[in-house]
Amino acid sequence: MERTWRDQAGVLRKPDWLKVRVPGGETYQNVKGLVRKYNLHTVCEEARCPNIGHCWERKSATFLIMGDTCTRSCGFCAIKTGRPNSLDLVEPIHVAEAIQILGLRHAVITSVNRDELPDGGAEHFSRTIRATRHRTPETVIEVLIPDFEGNPEALRKVVDAKPDVINHNLETVSRLYSQVRPQAKYWRSIELIRRVKEIDPTIGTKSGIMLGLGERDEEVLELMRDLQDVDCDVMTIGQYLRPTLNHLPVVEYVPPEKFDFFREKGMEMGFLDVASGPLVRSSFHAEDVFHKDAILQRLAKKRLESHR
Asked: What is the pTM of this model?
């Protein structure tokens, strides 16, 4: 029996397991009001994340720094492409204030690509991390960073600011990069994760991909092994959802049991955790992953070994 169906235009219709409730509720409105008050951007809104209602009700949001306009044109992303405005130098303080008001024990901070900047915005990341650490020293800070065009000094600026977790998404398998991430390079992204551990082995590393773009199972497993080879701690795997008809089409809606399969394989390979499911996104329940006792203990062991 077919798991997916097409409409009259030949476009795949979403299966039942991808249905989510309409956002709302008092807490959701409070978070939305806070985002507006400080003139902040969130990837939840800009990327049209299906989990926005769930996450905002939990007082969880992924802050998007350096504006809402990206210098790249990835085939999957809803964030607009163009010439960005100049950086808001007060933004790091506003993000830190919002994190403090929300009382987040785990904050996720990401950005658009800013390839027109000499360091790709690495210093802005650093200032945001330090401002957050100053206001809420107990908050676990996770940053989801771009590749900085392979600039090692830019990456070092972020690492030296001492976030707890550095996330950089591969997004898809190597074969599909020219369609999905035309301005990125698969091995450059792998190298970024390797360099994080080389500079500071105490920082947790994370990466994520989307399924449903035409990848093959063996290519996904190869990608997972590539991440393991550079000591990536955690991986996320979710379903690609087409933001508009101008974006790449969904080739397949992958059934939940296939996500379970990849999670099982990833745990066998040695990842500290693999969050894998149709609605999983890079930041979805991020606070739960790096607060698990087993993961904290294994990261602590890694840190001890790195100092020997």
From this structure: 0.83
